[in-house]
Design goal:
The protein is of the alpha+beta class. The protein is built from three helices and six strands, in the order H-H-E-E-H-E-E-E-E. The termini are far apart.
């Protein structure tokens, strides 16, 4: 009888120990899961910060380039114009596109008030390019107060890459719409 009682107590004792070990393992798993989530949140926060910083610098670079080209085009439009029908002299490409970024960006285009290409920072494919119906063009043509504009993504006909257009309006000396300067950002960079 005492051995049966001893076996019963040992079995209960081992069950309590096994239950205790199970509870400890469960607590460790919960802490490990919590730690893993915290590490993932930290990694995501760092990644988001890095991507945001890269995107911000990329957009600032593009905008700086567009602003430079706007200043050059508006200065060129202001020289030698005697009337609304006077011919616009496009500045040399070395001056006009001096600030145009290269890595990760497509061509920068200068469009007139009808959407025709006046100048480009690279060699465009052959053909007559009329971009007067593009969203970035119509926004600047119809709204003088729009500054830096980012249009919807599209597949570039220049290099067949998914791109995002970024643009700014340039004005004639009388303040009327002169055209648009557009710079594309290749999405593969991001």
């Amino acid at each position: 009888m005492p051995s049966r009682w001893l076996k019963s107590r040992l079995l209960q004792f081992s069950s309590v120990i096994a239950l205790g070990i199970g509870v400890l393992v469960f607590i460790q798993l919960l802490e490990s899961r919590s730690s893993t989530w915290q590490q993932a949140q930290t990694a995501n926060t760092n990644l988001l910060f890095t991507v945001g910083h890269v995107l911000e610098r990329t957009l600032e670079t593009a905008d700086r380039s567009l602003r430079h080209s706007v200043v050059v085009m508006e200065a060129a439009a202001g020289h030698g114009r005697t009337g609304m029908n006077a011919a616009l002299t496009v500045p040399p490409e070395t001056l006009l596109f001096a600030a145009a970024p290269e890595n990760g960006f497509g061509h920068q285009l200068v469009l007139d008030k009808q959407g025709r290409v006046l100048a480009t920072s690279g060699t465009p494919p052959p053909g007559d390019w009329d971009l007067g119906e593009r969203p970035y063009f119509t926004v600047h043509r119809d709204h003088a107060d729009v500054g830096f504009f980012i249009g919807p993504p599209f597949l570039s006909a220049m290099d067949n890459r998914p791109s995002v257009p970024m643009s700014r309006r340039w004005n004639l000396p009388d303040g009327s719409f002169g055209g648009v300067i557009v710079q594309t950002l290749q999405l593969s960079v991001l």
